[in-house]
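Chapter summary example.
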Amino acid sequence: MTGALVAQSRRPNIVVILADDLGYGELGCQGNPQIPTPHIDSIARAGVRFTNGYVSAPYCAPSRAGLMTGRYQTRFGHERNVVGDANLKPDVGLPVSETTIAQLLKGAGYATAAVGKWHLGAAPKFHPQQRGFDEFFGFLHEGHYYLPPPYKGGTTRLRPNEPPYDAENPLRRGTSTVEEKLYLTDAITREATGFIDRHVAEPFFLYVPYNAVHSPMQATTEAMKRFNGIGDEHRQVFAAMLASLDDGVGAILKTLREHKLEENTLVIFLSDNGGPTGELTSSNTPLRGFKGQLWEGGIRIPYMMQWKGRIPAGRTLHQPVISLDIFPTALAAAGVSAPAKLQLDGVDLLPLATGATDRAPHQSLFWRYDKAIALRRGKWKLVRQPAGPRAPEPAFELYDLEKDLAEKNNLVLSEPAIVADLRAELMALDSQMKKPLW
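The structure predicted for these 438 residues follows.
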């Protein structure tokens, strides 16, 4: 049976590509003229781009927990990020009581794979292949070096006291340790396209959480040459890393085209949180703040999807959406019903993306990370963002995001009724959440 006939006779494939620490303003389709990202941009051109796309947390691990479950991760205590030795603790990870999108799709007959950065627990019970994925290639902790030791064949820009990313954190195929000679972004791309090649004849769910453009900052010599015009080597390395990520996305899209699967594949691209500007040079323009904060720069991210033949091309939507919506959207595309007991916070975005409705899918969106907490309802955003983990609890701030996207004009004193209303809803939602598990 040819690829075209196969595509017409089965449920759609689902491909979720997750960038790491990619700032809101770094893609061409998001307004960056310095670093070409034609392949990622093509997803927006072929489908829909959400200008008000959010993640459920400003850090890697809790953001991924929300994406995998379709639920605010604070509902089940997966609130804080995990780094270094904390990854090795036996009870640190996505609680096994939670159901993942991969488990439901696997149960419905989908082939499933996770390729890249997991960061949802390193103990055996948290391994991707225990959470619904048939196949896994990648690493389990928060980061990994891109160039194989001794880091030749490219440029490395390390921060002082760079974390030992590879310590007790090898690359794995399944549960077996592997040695990799390729630049890691390219190796993730190879594994992702190989999975597609092997599963042309059956529906598949492919989750590709690249670790680019997360530190450590390492780029290949060839990619660096593409940006010789950038005078700052730090920025040049970032540009080269992003270009390699874009090349990988292009290879995945090309593989779908070669197998005539584009019209039967829902492709979603987003970042796991805002960019850490000082660390990477990543830009969240025109937003305030960065990774780790609940101002827009920490939680509003590039977010786009395509499904050729189903989602009209070239649409830009401004209704607020969130990464939690990927879970029910993918299930709806697959024709799979979520068990009612899951109590999802995400909603199916297909009616909005296809133009069946223009109604905003959410009345409100909620965030909490330690002492930081926020609520968005319509154009209004109420936020409390401490200056640091040990800083005193600050007062709430109120912003009209339609008029003040950069969150410069705090209206908390001039709009007391709105503050009181939003705060009551925020506290009601907060009361539903669990205390952090660690």
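To summarize the output: Residues 1-8 have pLDDT under 50 and may be disordered.
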